UniProtKB/TrEMBL annotation:
<keyword id="KW-1003">Cell membrane</keyword>
<feature type="transmembrane region" description="Helical">
    <location>
        <begin position="287"/>
        <end position="311"/>
    </location>
</feature>
<keyword id="KW-0472">Membrane</keyword>
<keyword id="KW-0808">Transferase</keyword>
<dbReference type="GO" id="GO:0005886">
    <property type="term" value="C:plasma membrane"/>
</dbReference>
<dbReference type="InterPro" id="IPR029044">
    <property type="entry name" value="Nucleotide-diphossugar_trans"/>
</dbReference>
<dbReference type="GO" id="GO:0016757">
    <property type="term" value="F:glycosyltransferase activity"/>
</dbReference>
<protein>
    <submittedName>
        <fullName>Glycosyltransferase</fullName>
    </submittedName>
</protein>
<keyword id="KW-1133">Transmembrane helix</keyword>
<feature type="domain" description="Glycosyltransferase 2-like">
    <location>
        <begin position="49"/>
        <end position="174"/>
    </location>
</feature>
<keyword id="KW-0812">Transmembrane</keyword>
<feature type="transmembrane region" description="Helical">
    <location>
        <begin position="12"/>
        <end position="33"/>
    </location>
</feature>
<dbReference type="Pfam" id="PF00535">
    <property type="entry name" value="Glycos_transf_2"/>
</dbReference>
<dbReference type="InterPro" id="IPR001173">
    <property type="entry name" value="Glyco_trans_2-like"/>
</dbReference>
<keyword id="KW-0328">Glycosyltransferase</keyword>
<feature type="transmembrane region" description="Helical">
    <location>
        <begin position="343"/>
        <end position="365"/>
    </location>
</feature>
<feature type="transmembrane region" description="Helical">
    <location>
        <begin position="317"/>
        <end position="336"/>
    </location>
</feature>
Length: 381
């Protein structure tokens, strides 16, 4: 029993240490993003090209463009690339070209060449047409305030950046979305200390969300553009890391007050969408994947069950483990509150973590079985 007690003490100590680190990391990241995020103030300045790839987006491209043509920033234009859609995407986008011929430009995308990710190739084509000093990449399903472009210019200039991205407001409408999509916040809640990015030039400290990325055009082209990450699925994160590895200044901030997005329309759509990125994000390293799965299960999912099991055997250890569980819940509470989402889903922290484990294993299976993921009519492996 002495050996069992020693193992138990070690387990509880690791659990408390990890949960404490994650809580502190989350708080510091939230404060850091608030400190370095400037409110949109630029009205005119460098030429901005807003680049929107669109594939079968007839349901949302109109709203996106309606937002983008009504910006407070003056010196900008918009380029939309219809990526071989078979719905009314091109027709809807062309309507804006007719109405705003000097501002909106619609391009017919070329067939996808071998070795390229669909979105990367669409973006690379758009970059070829863009004439702006600053390029803003945004998805067709995003909704923009009138100061969205101004926010990019303000924060690139005030922070002296080459690459900028951030968290938009995630519009989660169903229970399934609320149990899956918040896992995208784990990067800044449990993994990456954002404040170190300015101090240490480690690419792994840089991240991005493809819903909104802004870059200085010269720096971006010099770094190789989307061609540098042309075959990966999580091109946004790899692009941020690549820019940082080339010596450029990158930053991840908070853009929830200026851009929102409903990425997925339910549980299964959310699972497919996020799963296709998980394995790719860790470089398709199966040992790392299973190591992370084991860690998540041992120190984030199982502790809540161990608390009840230990109450009669060792009440003190059960109490310490309960502290660890409370720290995890508090971390999720802070993250969700900061994202303007209901913080009460934090009490489902074990469910959120377990959902991440299931998606990781699902991603591994789909990738290694050769099936891949079907996404917008294309196979992603």
């Amino acid at each position: 029993m002495v050996f069992v007690d020693k193992i138990l003490e070690l387990y509880v100590a690791i659990a408390i240490l990890c949960s404490s680190y994650f809580l502190v990391l989350c708080i510091l990241n939230v404060l850091w993003m608030k400190r370095h995020t400037f409110k949109a103030s630029a009205k005119n300045g460098p030429r901005v090209s807003v680049l929107v790839p669109a594939r079968n987006e007839e349901g949302c491209i109109g709203t996106c463009l309606e937002n983008l043509v009504n910006q407070t920033y003056e010196n900008y234009d918009i380029f939309i690339l219809d990526d071989n859609s078979w719905d009314r995407t091109y027709e809807i986008a062309s309507g804006f070209t007719e109405k705003y011929p000097d501002k909106v430009h619609v391009i017919k995308g070329k067939p996808l060449p071998q070795g390229w990710n669909g979105k990367c190739y669409a973006m690379e084509q758009l970059v070829g047409f863009a004439d702006g000093e600053i390029l803003v990449f945004t998805d067709a399903d995003t909704v923009h305030s009138q100061e969205s472009v101004s926010w990019a210019v303000t924060n690139i200039l005030n922070n002296d950046l080459d690459f900028l991205s951030g968290y938009v407001y995630e519009d989660l409408q169903t229970l399934g979305e609320k149990l899956v999509v918040p896992n995208i916040f784990i990067l800044t809640g449990f993994v990456i200390p954002l404040w170190l990015n300015k101090l240490i030039k480690l690419p792994v400290l840089s991240t991005a969300v493809g819903q909104y990325i802004a870059v200085k055009a010269d720096s971006f082209r010099a770094a190789g553009g989307y061609g540098a990450v042309k075959s990966v699925t999580t091109e946004d994160v790899y692009l941020a890391r690549h820019m940082r590895s080339m010596g450029y200044k990158t930053l991840f901030l908070d853009i929830k007050d200026y851009v929102s997005c409903r990425m997925y329309d339910g549980y299964f759509s959310s699972v497919r969408g996020i799963s296709k990125n998980i394995f790719d994000f860790i470089g398709k390293n199966k040992f790392l994947l299973f190591g992370l799965v084991l860690f998540i299960m041992l120190f984030t999912v199982l502790p809540i069950f161990f608390v009840f099991g230990l109450m009669s055997y060792n009440p003190l250890m059960a109490f310490y483990l309960l502290i660890s569980v409370c720290f995890y819940i508090l971390t999720w509470f802070i993250m969700l509150k900061d994202r303007n989402l209901s913080p009460f889903y934090a009490f489902l922290a074990p469910v959120l973590f377990f959902q991440l484990v299931l998606m990781a294993l699902y991603a591994f299976y789909k990738t290694n079985s050769g099936q891949g993921f079907e996404w917008k009519g294309r196979k992603v492996r």
